[in-house]
């Protein structure tokens, strides 16, 4: 089995290298790496963004969460769709009007250097943790399926994966990724559809029977309106989903870098709306797969693993046959690479432009600096993944969103304070406010649980953003400045 998986990886990676070669053959300078020369077709960007969002974590964790949370994750997904409209018609016009290379340049123009560096630093921290967690899950699956059987250490497996990703991104960055992620998005969605088909065949279901069975299942519940204390309450989930999308897409250089490669604002908005609408049916597909997997285990008396992230990998490797194993392998590799390659490029861009300010360097020196940073960021990925391996979280997707609620909160506060007020602030104090807000948010979460037995979910992001905005208000100057 292991040799077949390696063959699949080799063929898949060969296709990515081929795309990279043709895309980067004419141009591999920093303008191509950072912005793709602003020539990307909007519909290709929309497809590529789906692949970036639906990582290996989504491919594995979303089907696995059905047994615990039913299909209530769709409440967050509906919030995601609303958030994409906010991004398309509030944030994108701003970014295009200012002709930004990284979106945190807005903070420099609105507040000053310290705010700019703080915003970029929070993004770098958030993205390294989130992207590493996504890649970790897929690395663990490949380690279990193949490499542990040959005595290869986990750190060697992770290093190999990161080297593969570095191999097709180091020349042209985002210009290459727009096209490679289009292939990867198509592969992961096709993989999910083919797995569903194979599971239905093994349970002797045709398509109408499968749809009816999923609809009638006890885990098909989507909406929760009656329990305000539950983390699955609709209003908590919807609002959390909307604001998580705003911060993890609209205030995230990784996601917005693809949008900034479009030819103009109108194309970027078409891309964002199309991408937003596609997110709901795709997640419904993965949740439906989760119900089918539970039904399959029930029919054949298969014990459910304690770790829900292990359900799909276990069934794909031990019970569903070789075709499903092939589809599963292609799906998780496509999902992992499309998420990690984009994050690696965005982090390199942010470090180069926001932290090192390489625009002041001549073109040759700037290109050398970018290549060195690309290597350093890749090494940072490796270290964070190895650190995550010692924590062993049950559901990685839940962990990513929880971490994002704390690390993206200051970004939410900074951007919305800048957009919706005319108040100027003491720029030097911003780093302290942005570090204090997450700490106070954690204290608030702990107090609400201990005093009122209220379980805070991802809505802690809103508290975090509000605390940041309040802190900015406290360090305001008497002078006003116009928002950009």
From TrEMBL:
Residue ranges crossing the lipid bilayer per the database entry: 6-23, 43-66, 72-98, 119-146, 152-170, 182-200, 234-251, 272-296, 316-337, 373-391, 403-420, 432-449, 455-475
Keyword annotations from UniProtKB, A to Z: Cell membrane, Ion transport, Membrane, Sodium, Sodium transport, Transmembrane, Transmembrane helix, Transport
Any one GO molecular function term: symporter activity
Cellular localisation: Cell membrane
Record-linked InterPro entries: Na/Glc_symporter_sf, Na/solute_symporter, Sodium:Solute_Symporter_SSF
Signal peptide stretch: none
Gene Ontology cellular component annotations, sorted alphabetically: plasma membrane
Membrane topology, as annotated: Multi-pass membrane protein
Gene3D superfamilies documented for this protein: Sodium/glucose cotransporter
Pfam family, one: SSF
GO biological process: sodium ion transport
Taxonomy, superkingdom: Bacteria
Family in the record: Belongs to the sodium:solute symporter (SSF) (TC 2.A.21) family.
Protein name: SSS family transporter
Lineage, top ranks: Bacteria, Pseudomonadati, Bacteroidota, Bacteroidia, Bacteroidales
């Amino acid at each position: 089995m292991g040799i077949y998986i390696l063959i699949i990886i080799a063929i898949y990676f060969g296709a990515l290298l081929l795309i990279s070669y043709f895309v980067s053959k004419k141009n591999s300078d920093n303008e191509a790496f950072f912005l793709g020369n602003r020539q990307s077709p909007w519909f290709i960007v929309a497809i590529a963004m789906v692949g970036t969002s639906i990582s290996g974590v989504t491919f594995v964790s979303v089907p696995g969460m059905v047994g615990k949370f039913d299909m209530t994750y769709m409440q967050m997904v509906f919030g995601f769709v609303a958030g994409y409209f906010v991004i398309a018609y509030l944030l994108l016009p701003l970014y295009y009007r200012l002709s930004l290379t990284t979106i945190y340049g807005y903070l420099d123009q609105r507040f000053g250097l310290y705010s700019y560096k703080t915003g970029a630093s929070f993004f770098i921290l958030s993205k390294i943790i989130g992207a590493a967690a996504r890649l970790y899950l897929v690395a663990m699956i490949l380690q279990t399926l193949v490499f542990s059987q040959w005595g290869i250490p986990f750190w060697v497996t992770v290093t190999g994966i990161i080297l593969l990703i570095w191999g097709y991104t180091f020349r042209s960055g985002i210009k290459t990724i727009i096209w490679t992620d289009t292939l990867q998005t198509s592969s992961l969605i096709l993989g999910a559809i083919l797995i569903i088909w194979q599971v239905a065949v093994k349970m002797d279901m045709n398509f109408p029977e499968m749809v009816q069975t999923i609809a009638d299942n006890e885990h098909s519940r989507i909406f929760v309106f009656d329990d305000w204390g539950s983390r699955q309450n609709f209003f908590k989930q919807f609002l959390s989903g909307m604001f998580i999308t705003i911060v993890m897409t609209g205030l995230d250089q990784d996601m917005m870098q693809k949008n900034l490669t479009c030819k103009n604002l109108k194309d970027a908005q078409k891309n964002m709306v199309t991408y937003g609408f596609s997110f709901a049916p795709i997640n419904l597909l993965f949740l439906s797969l989760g119900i089918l997997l539970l039904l399959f285990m029930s029919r054949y008396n298969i014990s459910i693993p304690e770790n829900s992230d292990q359900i799909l990998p276990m069934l794909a490797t031990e019970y569903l046959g070789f075709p499903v194993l092939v589809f599963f392998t292609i799906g998780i590799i496509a999902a992992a690479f499309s998420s990690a390659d984009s994050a690696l490029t965005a982090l390199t861009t942010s470090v180069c432009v926001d932290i090192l300010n390489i625009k002041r360097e001549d073109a040759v020196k700037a290109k050398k600096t970018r290549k060195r940073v690309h290597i350093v960021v890749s090494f940072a990925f490796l270290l964070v993944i190895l650190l995550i391996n010692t924590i062993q979280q049950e559901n990685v997707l839940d962990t990513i969103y929880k971490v994002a609620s704390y690390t993206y909160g200051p970004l939410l506060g900074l951007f919305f304070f800048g957009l919706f007020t005319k108040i100027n602030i003491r720029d030097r104090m911003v780093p302290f406010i942005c570090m204090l807000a997450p700490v106070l948010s954690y204290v608030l979460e702990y107090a609400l649980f201990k005093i009122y037995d209220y379980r805070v979910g991802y809505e802690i992001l809103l508290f975090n953003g509000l605390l940041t905005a309040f802190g900015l208000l406290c360090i305001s100057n008497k002078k006003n400045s116009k928002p950009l």
